[in-house]
Fold:
Amino acid sequence: MKKLFLFLCLMLCNFFLFAQKYYAVKVADSKTEYPLKRAMVKNKLTNNTDTTGENGTTVIQASPGEVLYVNCKGYTSQEVTLSAQAAVHVFLEKKKIKKRKNRY
Structure:
């Protein structure tokens, strides 16, 4: 009985290991489609975090259905739910800057 239980546990662990895969995430400006470097990509379930390189891409390990939080300074943040596709393209919009009135 113990051997059967151990075997089932090992098979279940293998299932969860193979369920995760690597996603190539590309972050770009929504209007110019220029790649955004140093954008943060965070898996909300596992808290794995990575930043994009010079070409606006990074690779992160996750499972289909998990949610990625993407943030870059000067841009609005966005959440993306992963599907079965291995590549994810995220387009961020620039934040609108409020002009301050000069009091003097």
User: Anything to note?
Assistant: The beta strands are 21-29, 40-43, 49-51, 57-62, 67-71, 78-81, 87-92.
